[in-house]
Amino acid sequence: MTTAAADSHPPVITVCKQKLHGGRGCWQAYELGHDGDGRWLYTPAGSTFRSSDGTSDDRCEVEGGGEPGLDSLILIPDAAQHWLATWRSPERALHINIEVCGWLRRDDLVTFLDWELDPFRLRAGLVAVEDVDDFVDPRDQGLLDQESAERALAAAAWTERALKNQAAPFDGRGDQKLAAAGSRGLPPLVDVPHPFDL
């Protein structure tokens, strides 16, 4: 695992997302701190994202897909909230993943199960929920039980309202924290473990 090279660097956390169909992806982030909103994690552009479905593996840059990656900031609220927010460079949307509440949390690792619903707010102001089909299919296949599905829908509705109202913590503070973290010149995190090794 990558470790901070200098005393001035924040601790490095590994983040692992598990998909309902069994695939996994992981990346690393600097932990900026914890406040009343939750735990703030920053990943510089150029950092590595690793994914696997158990048979084939892939690598790309975090928030880049096949393109160059972007600076990104994640807010992890307390486990009862069922969401994880991601801010990216200013030209990109504020994106919320709806997640399982049963987080595995260690000082150096956060894992979560992606419930597939993804509320977002474009910079122009449009708020919507994407990947509804990705939520419905696993639910209908029995990969998501009824109680979890209801929690996921409730969390998506709450975050969609909060995004529309620009309510805390979606009121600009994430953009401010992302800009401040980007100005620190922290190096990309590239020594990422295999998702199935966590």
Notes on the structure:
The chain contains three helices and twelve strands; from the N terminus they run E-E-E-E-E-E-E-E-E-E-E-E-H-H-H. With 198 residues, the protein is α+β, with helices and mostly antiparallel strands. The protein has a single domain (12-197), classed as FomD barrel-like fold (Beta Barrel), CATH 2.40.380. Strands 1, 2, 3, 4, 5, 6, 7, 8, 9, 10, 11 and 12 form a twelve-stranded mixed sheet that branches. Strand 9 (104-105) and strand 10 (109-114) form a beta hairpin. The longest helix is centred in the C-terminal third of the chain and has 20 residues, at 146-165. The chain is globular.
Short description:
By secondary structure, this protein is of the alpha+beta class. The protein has three helices and twelve strands; from the N terminus they run E-E-E-E-E-E-E-E-E-E-E-E-H-H-H.
Q: Which characteristics define this entry?
A:
alpha+beta; 12-stranded mixed sheet; 3 helices; FomD barrel-like fold; 198 residues
Count of separate DSSP helical elements: 3
What is the number of strand segments?
A: 12
Oligomeric state of this protein = single chain
Question: What is the overall pLDDT average?
Answer: 88
Q: From the coordinates shown, what is the CATH architecture?
A: Beta Barrel
CATH topology: FomD barrel-like fold
Give the low-confidence spans.
1-6
Alpha-carbon distance between the two ends: 11 Å
Secondary structure category: alpha+beta
- The coarse overall form would be globular
Assign the CATH class.
Answer: Mainly Beta
Could you state the order of secondary-structure elements as H and E? Answer: EEEEEEEEEEEEHHH
The largest sheet is: 12 strands, mixed
CATH superfamily, by name, is FomD-like
What is the total domain count?
1
Strand content: 25-35%
Helix residue percentage: 10-25%
Radius of gyration from the alpha-carbon trace, in angstroms: 16 Å
